[in-house]
Design a protein that fits this description.
Layout lengths: L31 E2 L7 E2 L69 H21 L1 H27 L5 H38 L7 H26 L4 H26 L3 E3 L3 E5 H21 L6 H29 L14 H23 L3
Antiparallel strand pairs: 1-2, 3-4
Helix pairs in contact: 1-2, 2-3, 2-4, 3-4, 4-5, 4-8, 5-6, 5-7, 5-8, 6-7, 7-8
GO molecular function, one term: phosphatidate cytidylyltransferase activity
GO cellular component, one term: plasma membrane
Organism: Streptomyces acidicola
């Protein structure tokens, strides 16, 4: 906030009578002669009698920025008599007090009511599908992947004129998720290779200009969205798969919430100002603290054979990967010159704006679950 200057330059006549005597070159007092009439004098008004004023530097106050006192110094003194014909000086009116700046409330930066409402709705859909029928949750992942690919390829074409083929990406991405759930990691890798090949072939139906740029963006999109999302399906295949997926989702959401709450309230030191100016080091510490506490509780009470210290490590890893994933998508959006990937979710942006932390965290959580409690 810029500070305002409350002062103002002194107005003309503020200092009272002139300290420099009569004006140089002024006509002498007395009758004036009209050059066109000859010696006939013209009517003039008599000049007022100007009292003698001591030159500056005598007994006066040398601080010319302070107004002269217009009244006696003590209550029992009488003001000096004014010469005849000179109006008494008026006491300068005190300048009004400067208005105090109104304190501004710290804004959260987004529509919290809409964000909370959408978050609760998504959470209800995820939990219901996760614990009722696993196959339904696999379908939820596939739908999220297809919508995310549509948002990403649309922004690439709008902002960079990059035409990554959406049809092979959408079909291959959905197949990748299903293959990971049905056939495990081998099925996910096979589907990824076939999707990349389909992107190369599909783009051949158009002119060769920008072929390399378009297929490179297509392969990147296939890896970034559906392949990373496949690790959620891999977590789901375990006997306690729904609880593993729920733990992964809770830790990611808690990490994001801790970073947002602590950074908004206490954040002063920027984490990566050239990538994401809103993120702070204090927010990162909040993400780590919140995620580690939540991880210890989840591993102790939700995961079979899990212990609290494993949850601390899991929470630390989730906070780090979620932050890096958020920064990674911020780099993409900054390169594209956009704020959000879409507008599908009020208060959140698009699907990709919610998947940015989840996608890179999924393989990290899957690997730590396998190391700590096995794949079964």
């Amino acid at each position: 906030m810029n500070e305002s200057s409350w002062g103002a330059p002194p107005q003309a006549g503020y200092w009272g009578p002139s300290d420099h005597g009569p004006v140089q070159g002024a006509a002498p007092a007395g009758p004036a002669y009209d050059a066109h009439v000859g010696s006939r004098p013209s009517q003039t008004q008599p000049l007022p009698i100007v009292p003698d004023v001591p030159a500056h530097g005598g007994n006066q106050d040398d601080n010319r920025g302070a107004a002269r006192m217009g009244g006696p110094s003590f209550r029992d003194e009488m003001p000096p008599a004014q010469p005849h014909g000179v109006a008494p000086q008026k006491k300068p009116e005190p300048m009004p007090d400067a208005p105090q700046p109104t304190p501004q409330k710290k804004s959260a930066g987004r529509d919290l009511s809409a964000a909370i409402g959408v978050g609760i709705g998504l959470g209800a859909v995820i939990v219901a599908s996760l614990f009722i029928v696993k196959a339904v949750f696999v379908g939820v992942i596939a739908v999220a992947v297809v919508v995310g690919l549509w948002e990403l390829t649309s922004r690439l074409q709008e902002r960079k004129s990059i035409k990554a083929p959406l049809v092979p990406l959408a079909v291959g991405g959905a197949a990748m998720v299903v293959a990971g759930y049905v056939r495990g990691a081998e099925g996910a890798w096979a589907a990824m290779a076939l999707t990349a090949l389909a992107v190369l072939v599909w783009r051949m139906t158009e002119p060769p200009e920008n072929y390399l740029k378009d297929v490179t963006a297509g392969v990147f999109a296939a890896f970034y969205v559906p392949f990373l999302a496949t690790f959620v399906a891999l977590m789901l295949t375990a006997h306690d798969g729904p609880w593993r997926v729920l733990t992964f989702l809770l830790l990611t959401v808690v990490s994001d919430t801790g970073a947002y709450a602590v950074g908004w309230r206490f954040g002063t030191h920027k984490l990566a100002p050239r990538i994401s100016p809103g993120k702070t080091r204090e927010g990162l510490l909040g993400a780590v603290a919140f995620a580690m506490v939540a991880g210890a509780l989840c591993m102790q009470f939700l995961i079979d054979d899990g212990t609290w210290w494993q949850g601390l490590l899991l929470g630390l890893a989730v906070a780090a990967s979620a932050t890096l994933g958020d920064l990674g998508e911020s780099m993409i959006k900054r390169d594209l010159g956009i704020k959000d990937m879409g507008t599908l979710l009020p208060g959140h942006g698009g699907i990709m704006d919610r998947l940015d932390s989840l996608l890179p965290t999924a393989p990290v959580a899957w690997l730590l679950f396998v190391l700590f409690v096995g794949s079964g």
